[in-house]
Write a structure and sequence with these properties.
202 residues; alpha/beta; two-stranded antiparallel sheet; 39% helix; globular
Length: 202
């Protein structure tokens, strides 16, 4: 979302919204990601086969794995749908995307850099040894940042940092985590989303 807003800013000044943004990553722990020639992780076939196998053998692990990594707020958990959720998560992604995520976590300057290919390859692509920084301050449209108070992946401290950089942003926290934005029993926060989409202030 933010990369597209920077690279291709819309002509109108219409507001944009982002729930649980993953731009700045200072409060997330991660380990090194190595591709070993693998270009995509967690494909649909992989998830479907393995989720059925794991859930049939270890149902407790099946229902708790995603919440361990992405949801610390259990009171809004819709546990009846756990088998359905397990069949569709985690969403497929590229190894390059995960490596860029790791680079953002490890960044020392609180800046959002483009993908770091290494000094030689960076010189070929960017004409400099270090990857350039995305100009977040160049986003002029109003951005609504809707944040889960107990979200361990899009941590409120990270999103507050982003809000301070965006020239025109709105920040609000809700008593939910990461996945309960779409899977929770209480989706009352969505009333605010509808107001934003209808051009109303919240």
């Amino acid at each position: 979302f933010f990369f597209l807003m920077i690279r291709r800013p819309p002509r109108s000044t219409q507001s944009r919204s982002s729930a649980a943004s993953d731009v700045y990553k200072r409060q997330v722990s991660t380990q090194s990601t190595w591709g070993f020639g693998i270009r995509e992780l967690f494909t649909p076939n992989f998830k479907l086969v393995n989720s059925k196998l794991i859930c049939s053998i270890m149902p407790l692990l099946c229902s708790n794995t995603v919440y361990f990594f992405a949801e610390t707020n259990r009171k809004n958990r819709n546990s009846r749908r756990d088998p359905v959720f397990a069949a569709h998560i985690p969403g497929g992604t590229s190894t390059k995307n995960l490596m860029h995520f790791q680079q953002m976590v490890n960044a020392k300057d609180y800046q959002l850099h483009k993908f770091n290919y290494g000094k030689e390859r960076n010189l070929e692509i960017y004409r400099k040894h270090e990857p350039p920084v995305y100009n977040i301050r160049g986003i002029q449209q109003k951005v609504y940042l809707l944040v889960g108070k107990t979200d361990p992946l899009s941590h409120p401290l990270d999103v507050k940092l982003l809000s301070g950089v965006l020239p025109n942003s709105f920040y609000r926290e809700y008593d939910i985590g990461h996945v309960s934005f779409v899977w929770g029993n209480d989706l009352s926060y969505f009333d605010d989303v509808l107001k934003i989409l209808n051009g109303q202030e919240i």
